[in-house]
Design goal:
The protein has 2 helices and 2 strands; from the N terminus they run βαβα. The longest helix is centred in the middle third of the chain and has 9 residues.
């Protein structure tokens, strides 16, 4: 994207469920609308219903944010 097309805004895309994928289509739409766009797969591959990365590995999902949320 060139600076002339940029609207001066950043658009971040998250994931639902257990994440693990980047929505490249959504990022492309944001860039086409003039946004700088970012997304994350949260460090693992999988779809929104695949929690296999966390099964048997509580250290992968027990974060301070999760602990705060679960209080």
């Amino acid at each position: 994207m060139n600076s002339v097309a940029w609207n001066g805004k950043l658009q971040g895309w998250g994931n639902g469920g257990f994440a693990g994928e980047i929505d490249y289509r959504a990022l492309a739409i944001a860039v086409k609308k003039g946004y700088a766009a970012v997304g994350t797969d949260t460090g693992h591959a999988g779809n929104g219903t695949d929690a296999s990365w966390a099964l048997g590995h509580p250290e992968k999902w027990r974060t301070s944010a999760t602990a705060e949320f679960m209080k």
